[in-house]
Amino acid sequence: MFENILPALGSLMSGEHILFLIIGVIIGLAVGLLPGLGGVAGMSLIIPFIYGLDPGSALAMMIGLTSVTTTSDTFPSVLLGIPGSSGSQATVMDGFPLTKKGQAARALSAAFAA
User: Which of 17-21, 31-35, 86-90 has the highest mean pLDDT?
Assistant: First the structure.
């Protein structure tokens, strides 16, 4: 079992998988910035593009997308008062009033630290 760890790690750290992970992160940031869209909607948007990829690259792109949507939906929650997903509804209650008072940077930093 342990003899398979190094070849698997080498396969995961290949340039192709890292590239698709970074592409997934960029797409996830864009999806998270749009109010109302979350990780599930982002996954449904990229399924046609990952259909022909090998499973490792497709999985890397999906992991990259879903890992950042919860972070990037903080921006519309705090700045616009529109929750990006169900997990950011509490951020709207505290962050948007601070934004209206002119303390958006403080609200964003508190949301990212939480």
Answer: 17-21
List the one residue out of 87, 31, 102 whose CA is nearest residue 111. Answer: 87
Q: CA 47 to CA 97: how far, in whole Å? A: 37
For tokens 């879903």, the residue is 66
pTM for the predicted model, two decimal places = 0.82
Domain boundaries, given as residue ranges, for the chain = 1-72, 73-114
Three-class HEC string of the chain: CHHHHHHHHHHHCCHHHHHHHHHHHHHHHHHHHCCCCCHHHHHHHHHHHHCCCCHHHHHHHHHHHHHHHHHHCHHHHHHCCCCCCHHHHHHHHHHHHHHHCCCHHHHHHHHHHC
